[in-house]
Amino acid sequence: MTKEQILETLLAIVRDVIDDDDIEFGLDTPFTQVPGWDSLNNMHIIVRLEKKTGVEFQQADFQTIATIGDLVEAVLRKQGK
Questions:
Q1: Which DSSP string corresponds to 34-53?
Q2: What's the domain count of the chain?
Q3: If phi over 0 gives left and psi between -120 and 50 gives alpha, with beta otherwise, what is residue 55?
Q4: Could you give phi then psi for residue 67, rounded to 5 degrees?
């Protein structure tokens, strides 16, 4: 997947999990600025992202992930791109 495809996939997942089709974000957006993205929804979002992208995250991966772009880059790294 490309960076743009991962971002589109993530946006679709977040809109579904949070149940808000009006949510918008970009690569520089911190998770704390996404309405409804709390710790419980984070778990649902990450599990769905793992299934859609074929990657698996470990808890330690999230120590350096603070923005949407960080998460997209982490997916790319795990996909070997």
A1: STT--HHHHHHHHHHHHHHH
A2: 1
A3: beta
A4: -125, 170
Task: Give the CATH number of the domain where residue 12 resides.
Answer: 1.10.1200.10
Angle among Cα 14, 22, 51 to the nearest 5 degrees reads 15
Which residues of 13-79 form beta strands (DSSP E)? Answer: none
pTM value?
0.93
- For residue 30, the surrounding DSSP H or E stretch is none
In tens, the pLDDT along 44-62 reads: 999 999 999 999 999 999 8
Instruction: Compute the distance between CA of residue 72 and CA of residue 5 in angstroms, rounded to an integer.
Output: 10
